[in-house]
Amino acid sequence: MMRRRLAMLLPLGALTACSLAPAYQRPTPAIPAALPVAGQPDEPAPATLSYRDLVRDPRLVSLIERAVANNQDLKAALANVASARALVTVTRADLFPQLDGNVGVTTGDSSNETRGNVGNNGNNGAGGVGGGNGASTGGRRTTYNANLGVSWEIDLFGRLRSLNDAAFNQYLGTEAAQRATRLSVVAGTANAWLALAADRSLLAIARDTQASAARSVELTQALLKGGVAPRTSLRQAETILSQAEADQAALETAVAQDRNALELVVGEPVSDDLLPASIESLNGALAEVPAGLDSSILLRRPDVVEREYQLRAANARIGAARAAFFPRIGLTALAGFASSALSSLFDHGAFTWSVAPSATLPIFDGGANLGNLRYSKAQRDLAVANYQRAIQSAFRDVSDALARRATIDRQLAASTRLDGAARDSLFLANARFREGIDPYLNLLDAQRTAYGAARTLTQTRLLKAQNLITLYQSLGGDALIDARPARDGGTR
User: How far apart are CA 236 and CA 248, in angstroms?
Assistant: First the structure.
């Protein structure tokens, strides 16, 4: 009979499809419809872009793989995903009946006392005395029971379903955040590797300059002793030597710190054979990044996807806040056996059952429900603003990367020509000084120009390589894979 009653109540679960959450509509992005044109204007937007499509150097690929496996920030992001997934399980469980079983034994003392008085009075001239007769019973009472209980909140107005949708979208948001963290780890590893390569090149330039300046100082000292060169030439030669020595010390520190930074992002020590010798040796280590010009590709960036899921979650919470104004309907059922003897606990006559439906309607709550509804709507508005800001930041990132991409080749070509001209000028100035044609001031000026030009060329090469990484990251990179937003309603 109990099963028949429960079976009659189960169709009420079909009513849980009702939801008071507003219909979700993706806000129109507050950005231009097209990205700035840079490079080739007809390049198609990439559907997916793995870092293996960008990185061609196997050493860097190996380091990125290790970073993805070992980085602590990424492990923390994965733990957040697991936590959000567990919370989805918790909130989803509220949609279903809760079934509990219990067995127990109850023992207690009871005492009943009955007293009765019987009196016969005779009148034969003498007094009579009546006698009383009483009985008492007492004992220990034990009851055994085994019960199966069902409790269920029938979600007629979608409160539980809205909370479940909010938790599910929050979980999807943490997944997107994990993809964003992974993308940052990939880009961070590549940038740390490139910075190390550039600083090694700058250190080599400083060492070459220091060696050249030391030879100039020796030559000037010899000329000074011979009375050919003035003392000012010696002091001028010593300035470029001291500058190169100071730069060399600073760059040795920078190279060591670059390696520390690389090992931090990789999550383990990095062997020497995986380190770049110089920025010049990395020509062709990175491929060009195709950049589509439709700004809708920004909606696939993991940070933008995360914000959209947070917006969906806030939208669902409005439904839960609205449902709080309506009655909560619950059902509690109990079926089991109770007997004073353990041997007869499961006899047919010991079976008991009860069904207790209930409805709770909020009448006065001091404005709590209204406050919660207003709060939910304000949080939805905040999520909209955060979503729009994420899209605008993404547009700024890509626009800046494309602006750099449009001019970096010309800058690199000019820096290369400058370096070549400065080297040739230094060679000629050195020859003229040795021949006594020009004073040392001309050679000093040529040395400083050559030193600065070599450093500028190295830094420009680093900028070009980092621009490829930045463009890859700003477009969403391999996080574009499975970065599709859930369908309306919070599930997919």
Answer: 19
Give yes or no for a contact between 314 and 378, defined as CB atoms under 8 angstroms apart. no
Neighbours of 274 (CB within 10 A): 16
List the one residue out of 471, 440, 175, 413 whose CA is nearest residue 305. Answer: 175
Q: Judge contact between 334 and 354, C-beta under 8 A.
A: yes
The most distant pair of C-alpha atoms in the chain lies apart, rounded to whole Å, by 170
Q: How many residues does the chain have?
A: 492
Q: Which two tokens stand for residue 98?
A: 């809760």
Q: Number of helices (H) and strands (E) in the chain: give both, helices first.
A: 9, 4
First to last CA, the chain: 39
Q: How far apart are CA 231 and CA 221, in angstroms?
A: 9
**Sign of the alpha-carbon dihedral angle for 159, 161, 162, 163:** positive
d(CA 444, CA 316): 71
Distance, CA of 210 to CA of 221 (rounded, Å) = 16
**Tens digit of pLDDT for each residue in 418-454?**
999 999 999 999 888 888 788 888 888 899 999 999 9
- Average pLDDT of every residue of the chain: 82
Burial 174-211 (b: 16+ CB within 10 A, else e): bbbbbbbbbbbbbbbbbbbbbbbbbbbbbbbbbbebbe
The pLDDT tens digits of the residues spanning 348-379 come to: 666 777 778 888 888 888 899 899 999 999 99
Categorize the per-residue pLDDT at 10 as very low, low, confident or very high, splitting at 50, 70 and 90.
very low
Counting other chains too, the contacts that 417-423 makes at CB distance below 8 Å and 24 or more residues apart are 418/453, 418/456, 418/457, 419/450, 419/453, 419/454, 419/456, 419/457, 421/453, 422/446, 422/449, 422/450, 422/452, 422/453, 422/454, 423/450, 423/453, 423/454
Q: In what side-by-side order are the strands of the sheet with 132-154?
A: 98-117, 132-154, 328-339, 351-360
| Domains contained in the chain, CATH given | 36-94+157-327+369-480 (1.20.1600.10)
Collapsing DSSP to helix, strand or coil, 350 comes out as: helix
Mapped onto helix, strand or coil, the DSSP state of residue 437 is: coil
One-letter amino acid at 272 equals D
As a whole number of angstroms, the distance between CA 316 and CA 160 comes to 10
Q: Which residue has the tokens 């309306």?
A: 488
Tokens of 130: 């009546």
Dihedral sign for Cα 290, 294, 297, 298, please.
positive
Taking only the tens place, the pLDDT of each residue in 375-434 is: 999 999 999 999 999 999 999 998 999 999 999 999 999 999 999 999 999 999 988 888
Task: Give strand pairing partners of 106.
Answer: 143
Lowest-pLDDT choice from 19-23, 57-61, 485-489: 485-489
Q: Which two tokens stand for residue 479?
A: 């996080």
CB proximity list for 334: less than 8 A, separation 6 or greater: 147, 148, 149, 150, 352, 353, 354, 355, 356
Coil vs helix vs strand at 463: helix
Q: List CB contacts of 16: < 8 A, sequence separation 6 or more.
A: 95, 154, 155, 156, 158, 160, 161
